[in-house]
Amino acid sequence: MKRRFEFIIEQSDEQKTVKSFLVGGGRISLTCLKKIKFADDGILLNGERVFVTEKLKTGDLLQINIPEPRP
């Protein structure tokens, strides 16, 4: 099972990279980002897989899918 988080990008976050938005904004840790960035559905921008260097635009839908830790 995965936990999904969705963010609608506001004007104040426009032109930030996915990485700076997520890690710099304290939304997820750098360790978590390193784990999900290679997953097929780890980071999606408007439904498309993107690199963490992708620039954001106002109104974009950013989705991250974090797998549940294994017991």
Would you summarize the structure shown here?
With 71 residues, this protein is α+β, with helices and mostly antiparallel strands. Helices cover 20% and strands 27% of the residues.
Structural class: alpha+beta
Q: Measure the end-to-end span.
A: 13 Å
- Sheet with most strands: 4 strands, antiparallel
- Per DSSP, the total helix count is 2
The percentage of residues in β strands lies in 25-35%
Structural shape: globular
Provide mean pLDDT, rounded. Answer: 92
Uncertain parts: none
Question: Got a strand count?
Answer: 4
From the alpha carbons, calculate the radius of gyration and give it in angstroms: 12 Å
SSE string, helix = H, strand = E?
A: EHHEEE
Q: Percentage of helical residues?
A: 10-25%
**Strand line-up across the major sheet:** 1-4-2-3
Keywords:
alpha+beta; single chain; four-stranded antiparallel sheet; 71 residues; globular
Please render the helix and strand layout as text:
Blueprint: E1 2-8, H1 18-24, H2 30-36, E2 43-45, E3 48-49, E4 61-67
Antiparallel strand pairs: 1-4, 2-3, 2-4
Please characterize this protein's 3D structure:
This protein has helices spanning 18-24, 30-36, and strands at 2-8, 43-45, 48-49, 61-67. The chain is α+β, with helices and mostly antiparallel strands.
